Amino acid sequence: MALYELPEWAGLAPAVILAATSLVLLLVDSIDPDSSNRPALAGTATTGALLSLAVTGWFLVAGVGDPDGRGVISLFGGQLVVDQTSLLFTFIFASVTTMVTVASYDYLRGHAYQAEYYSLIMLAATGMATMASSASLATVFVSFELLSLSSYALVAYLKDNRGSVEAGLKYFLIGALSSAVLVYGISLVYAVTGSLRLAAVAEAAAGTELVGVLGLGVLMVLGGFAFKTASVPFHFWAPEAYEGAPAPISGFLSSASKAAGFVVAFRVFTVAFPVEQFLDLGVDWVFAVQILAVVTMTLGNFAAATQNEVKRMLAYSSVGHAGYALIGLAAISGPNSDLVLGAGMMHLLVYGFMNTGAFLFIALAEYWDVGRTFEDYYGLASRAPVASLAMTVFMLSLAGLPPFGGFASKYILFMGAVNAGFWWLAAVGAVNSALSLYYYSRVVKALWIEEPSDDVAKVGITEQPIGIYAAIVFAAVVTVALLPAFGPVTETAVSAAGALLP
Amino acid sequence: MFEYAPAVALLPFVSFLIALSVGSYMPKKGAFAGIAATGGSLLLSVWAFVTVSGGEVYNEPDLFTWVAAEELSLSFGILIDPLSAMMLIIVSLVAFLVHVFSLGYMNDEGETGLPRYYAELGLFTFSMLAFVYASNLLMAFMFFELVGLCSYLLIGFWFRTESAASAAKKAFLVTRFGDYFFLIGVIGVIATFGTAQFAGQESFPVLAEHALVDGETEAMTTFLGLGEQAWVTLLGMLVLGGVIGKSAQYPLHTWLPDAMEGPTTVSALIHAATMVAAGVYLVARMYGFYALSPTVLTFIAFVGGFTALFAATMGVIKDDIKRVLAYSTISQYGYMMLGLGAGGFVAGSFHLMNHAFFKALLFLGSGSVIVLMHHEQDMWEMGGLKDKAPATYYTFLAGSLALAGIIPFSGFWSKDEILFEALHYGLGNQPLLLGAYAMGLVAVFFTGFYTFRMVFLTFHGDPRSDTARDPHPVGWSVKVPLVVLGLLATFIGFVNMVPVADLLNMDIEFLHQWLDGPEETVTSVHHYEELVHDAAGFEAADIGPYLPGALSLGLALAGAGLAHMLYNVPDPEPHTEKLGNIRTLLKRNYYQDEYQVWIAEGLTLPVARAANKFDRTVVDGAVNGISRVSLDSGSRLKQVQTGVVTNYAALLTFGLVALLVVVGLYGGWF
Predict the structure, then answer these.
(1) Do the chains contact at B634 and A170, CB–CB below 8 Å?
(2) How far apart are CA B373 and CA B371, in angstroms?
(3) Least CA distance to A296: which residue of chain B?
(4) pLDDT band for position A453 (cuts 50, 70, 90)
(5) Residue A304, min C-alpha distance to chain B (Å)
């Protein structure tokens, strides 16, 4: 009962810790902008992320936010909320942030403005954690922008690299457009309902006559979220940004930032725009999400199949996975909706580890200057067997093969969709998964089966970056361990989803 | 005892692994591992036999389930009833003796590749034993195929000689042809009855019986619009395809004579106890199913009778001692099929047992002759071996007397019983069986002739070559198996002397009682006899066993006598050359090979080519087409990503507008 003695705002501790870490790093940056004390900087960031992760884990175990446990905490007049969903997603964000900061220790060797970099990462993580807790359209938008602005700067962090700067600019422009769409959508919703609090929106929307305006608003809000989750057609920034950005940032954006987009989407669309009520009104946003899910899955996987560069392939595969996660919302109008929504959350959790791990392997390859294409990866396994083994785990798990976590989450997701009566969504997902096996196995084949090219032979693998290795191995272990540990994860996710649904 | 039942088959499997892995480091190259394993199997089989005779039948259909679905489960299990207990002993005994004999035949002759030989022998024994006590048809099929694979390996043991490699291939392909039908039959049985078990109240013969005899047609699902009776007949015929291939019945017998290319020990194993016996054993195993269909029974009998005669005539002119034996094998399995088809379950099983012993004896005896003769197999190069190798001669003679069916050797009793079964049902209400009987009867004469032609040419008269004058001595490892088998070939027939039992009016039909089992079950002889009578509608005429017995004995003696007249002289002439055109016809084996080669090359090859073309153009085309379309559309999608940010903004906006319009129209906002 010790927790009850803490004030209620302590429920926000994970986000507060992240924000405080960011401020500490910002302070360091203003005192010594050229600091290249890598251990101190990366250590501070990692400590903050780990602390946040630990607190989140503790809260989850202690039953904070669990309606049957210590109860949902609502703060600041219902602007922020701490429940299982927010904690589960904060857990994802903190984990990914930890892996990224650990890996960045090596990756940033020789780069300037390191304090700024870590500070931006922590700010972005703060934005994500706040997004997970946002219970009003206003806080959604503010935290959304906090994440977005930090991300633009992070993508463009390699200032001497044309690709990085160009990607940052494109990301910013598309992001500005999408934010405009989102905020316009919010304004339309506000115009109809006169409220920004999610629960109040749902109440006020009942029986409105301005269905067209409300519908426009809802779809534009959906568009804004589609930008964050890199769903088609708001995905155009993603391949470019992931490719141009430093590889740890690519992993950060494609795993954590995507999950952040999904958590607001899940919360806003279940709490503010409840399915049945909006179907009665004639605002069939589920239909729109279904279109997005199918198009996103298909386009992402098809485009990934023809890439020659591994990082770009992963970028498109990340678009494809957004499509899978969208099934969580797209199949919500059927029975067992808590299972399918929970399955979407689980998939994002597993994805957070396997996808970050994959991008960190790219970071490792970039660290060694291996090259970018599949050919450059030929025979890498003979030089770096541990990392290659981990990469194989990530690839097979992303493809959804047993015995890895990706198999379980994808299986439950498709099964949930079938149970909810959306067998065709599951069928499209399964076909796309089959296609994805083609390009994921290309990586495995390149690593293990193909003869090494000359470039690989030259790679100075004498140098083993401890940080990147540690992060990769950690991600691989979790990816494997999540399969046996799927029981409690499922329980938490389904319970979290059940609490969101009316 | 039965908890050790899996070890009966697994022991030879262990010897296979041992011989394969460390055989080349062992004394005698793995022979002792094989001898110990098959000896162990033999002891366990005897133990199982004793346990069964104590009144226990072991039917554990579900020792290991490897596919479990709601409607159907596929599993490995063990069935040890009187029939399989008897067969286990036969197989393990012959395998044990063959292993011992191999010491003298293979090791002492300095063959290379012996670890491979003993490994394959172990695997062969394992497959056959597992086949024998398989509890369901699917498991039987799998081990049936494994048996086929092992004979392929062993026939081609001397794979560097072209004829051995080609004989192995032929054996594999021809039996495989029959096995296609068998496989379809297995699937058909599972689809029809939902089970492939042999014994027990839930087994497929019992379900079929319920459907056909008791009219409970919901027990089975028929297909192709056929009635229950027709469907059971069709299934029986399909499974029979595998039997005809394995047991070398007409027209799939052509592989067996060529299979002589393998070592003689292997021939003994293949002919007596394993490969060829598997086919007939399968018919006996699922006799409850065959007994439901008079059409299939008659067909079996007819094929059997025809094969018996057909192969016996070809045996008459062969000059190679092993080839004579090969044709005699085909002919003798024809008798077994005749017996089973004519409703004589006991007669067929009886002959299966007798034949196993005397044919193993004859093959091992011929192996001994081949050692004596420095690997010469042409009988015209032999002669006069009688005095130089008495042990080989007397045992071989016992086997020959059994084969020819001379009283009181074992073959007489079983062959007589088979012919009697065919005759008394034939005179009853199945006149078609009379034709089969007639062919079987004529074949008795030819059998007597070719058997004693072989004996006289090999052992009697003057030596016709230098090696025959000075033969290579053989050791104990050759003689001991011969003596054991010689005794069995002489006396084993006493277990079921039907005419004597009838004459003395005594209850001495021990095999009949044994196969009837301790209590009546669905695999008891009594039950089979009822089925043959009630379901198949066979009715026996009331005739005594003496006259038919005397008739067949007379024919056998006549054949032997003719051989005696022509060949038991100091310097025999090749009399068969006087046969002229008939000899050519027989020499070419009735052109069976030629027409089968024509079928393969003239018919199958073009069809295969056409199928290949279809596969490459249509099937591959479709598959490649799908992947090409996927990758092409992927490339097209890739082009949308122009890299120009204004294009992105435009596409994004258009996408949003399109979504708004579609959902708006769908939702009726406008």
Answers:
(1) no
(2) 5
(3) B637
(4) low
(5) 7
